[in-house]
Amino acid sequence: MSPEELLFMGFFSIYIPVGVLFRYLSPQAKKGTALSLGLLITIGTCGIHTLHSLCTVLGTWLLIRVNWRKAPPLSLGWTFLYLIFFRTGTWIGLPPPELFPNIIQLLLTLKMVSLAYEVRSYHFEKEKEVSSFSKSPMIGRLSHEPSLYDIISYSYYYVGLMNGIFIRYQTYVDWLEQTDPLSLPCKVPCLSRLKFVLVYAALALGVDFLFPVSYVRTDDFLEHNFFFRFFYMVAVCFAVRMKFYFAWHGAEAGCITAGLGCYPKGAESKPGCGPTVQYSPEPGALVEYDFRTIQNIDCYNTEFCVKVRQAIRYWNMTMQWWLHQYIYSSAPFRAYTLRVGWTMLVSAYWHGLDAGYYLSFLTISVCIAAELSMESCVRARLGAEGQKMFDWVHWFLKMRTYDYMCMGFILLNASDMLHYWSSIYFLIHVVAFVCIAAGRLMGGGKKDRTREEREK
Q: Is residue 411 part of a domain?
C-alpha cells in the first residue's frame, strides 16, 4: 500500500475510538475539540497548503455577508474558480498540492456551496415569517445565520475533514446539539460497516498485486490477445472498487461512533441531505434510528443493480445528492441525457483537470442514452423471460461500462487512457453508439420523460 493509503487507514482507525469520546462532550466542548483536532490534522498533512482551504472559507463567508441573495451562484463560481488556481499554482511557482490538500479542498468546495444555499433559504424563510406572522415548518432550516467561527468549525471539524462524506451545515449543527448522544444506538451500525472492511482490503491488495495497473502502460501489454487486455481491466477496476468500499465503510464507521448523522427512521433521511420530513415521535414511543445521512456507498446495489443510472446513485451517495441538488436541478438543458451530461462534466471538473476524468464521465452520459434507447425499443417489447435475459445482459454491460470508465480515473493521462481504450478497440463506446443508432431506427428517439425523471 502507498504511504497515503496507510495514513488513511491510520486516520480511520483513530476516528472510530475517538468518536466514542466525543459523545461524552457538551455541544460547545464538542465543537471546539472537533475544530482543534481537525486543524491539527489539516496543518499536519497539508502544511502551507492549508492556506488554500482558508482562502476558500473566508471568500465564501465574505460573499454571504455582502450579498446572501446571490451568495449561492457566487460561491459556486468562487470555489470552482479557486480550484483552477489550486491546481495550476505551479505555473507561478507555488508548490504542487498533494493528495491530502486536494481531498480537503474538494470536500470544502461542496460544503461552501451548500452552506451558501442554506443561508439563503434561512433568510427567505425569515422573510416569509415576517410577512405571514407564522413560523415556517421548513425541514432542516437553520435557526440562525452562522458566524465566521461557525463556518470555520464546520469547515475543519475532524470527522468531516477528509473522509469523502459530504454533509450539510444543518447536519453538523444537529450533531453538536444532540440532547442525549450516549443513548444513540451506534454499536450495531458501526459493526455492520466494519465486518467486511478487512475482506475488502485483502481483496484490493491481492488483486492489485496480481494485476498492477502500471503494466497497462507498457508495450508488452499490447502483445497479449484481446481477451487478456479486456479482462485485465475488469481485475484492475475490481481492486479499485474494493479500496473505495474499504475506505468509505471505515469513514462511515468513524461518523457513526461520533453519532454524526443519526436521525429517527421516521425522518426519512437521505445521504448528504439529512431528514426530508418533519418527525415528532409520540411521548414514550420507541424510536428507531438510522445513519442514512452519512451513508456514502451501497456495495451490494453498486455491484448488482442493473442500470448505469442506478449504479450512479449507489456510489459516492452524499456527493450524488449534492450534484443533483445544486447542478442537475439548475442545468441549462431540459433533455434528461443532456442534463446528465452537464452534471457529469461538472463532476469531472470537480475531480480534476486531467483528461481521464472528462473522457470517463462523458462516457457515462453516452451509455445512459444507450440504455434508455434499448429499454424503450427492445426491453419494452419482450415478455417476462425475455426481459429477464435482457436484464442479465444489461447488468454485464453496466459492470463493463464502469470498468471502462474506471481506467480513466486510474490512468488520468489522455495518451495512456486512449492507448488502453484503443487496445480494446473502444468497445464500450462502439456498443453504446450502436445501441443508440439501433434505438433510433426502431423508433425509440422520443423518451418517456416522466419515467426518466422518476429515476433521477
A: yes
